[in-house]
Amino acid sequence: MALRAVSTSGAPRAIGAYSQGIDTGSFVFVAGQIGLDPSSGQLVEGLPAQAERALRNISAILDAAGLTMADVVKTTVLLADIADFEALNAVYAKFIADPPPARATYAVAALPRGARIEIEAIAFRPAPV
């Protein structure tokens, strides 16, 4: 299996030793995205805006791999405060198609750059017919 790094200017460049995404041919694994605006490099303010920006970043990475949010089969959400769970769901529902992907959501002690949320995704590429 050949691995291909997925990269786009539509999402923040990696701030460590990782790729924005990895395409295996059948699956695209999107690295955790926080609410960084790719044009300014700055973290947007507040949980709803950070969740939306993280999901837009994921969407841009998927687009660079030729996929969409409708291809997402699994997400993992990390919250700095589990009390933000309902606010997350309100934003998340706007980006996710039916049937919604499997998801795990965890509260964590801290996230990079003081972010309130980080989201990673796995998307599936169906075989050509």
Task: Give a short summary of the structure.
The protein is built from two helices and six strands. It is an alpha+beta fold and 129 residues long.
Please tell me about this protein's structure.
This protein has 129 residues and is of the alpha+beta class. It has one domain: 60s Ribosomal Protein L30, Chain: A (2-Layer Sandwich). It is 20% helix and 27% strand. The protein is built from two helices and six strands; from the N terminus they run βββαβαββ. It has a six-stranded mixed beta sheet, covered by helices on one side. α1 packs across α2. The radius of gyration is 14 Å and the shape is globular. The mean pLDDT is 96.
**CATH architectural grouping:** 2-Layer Sandwich
Q: What spatial order of strands do you see in the largest sheet?
A: 1-2-3-6-4-5
Helix content: 10-25%
Find the CATH topology.
Answer: 60s Ribosomal Protein L30, Chain: A
Largest sheet: 6 strands, mixed
In percent, how much strand structure appears in the residues? 25-35%
What's the structural domain tally?
Answer: 1
Shape: globular
* Radius of gyration (Å): 14 Å
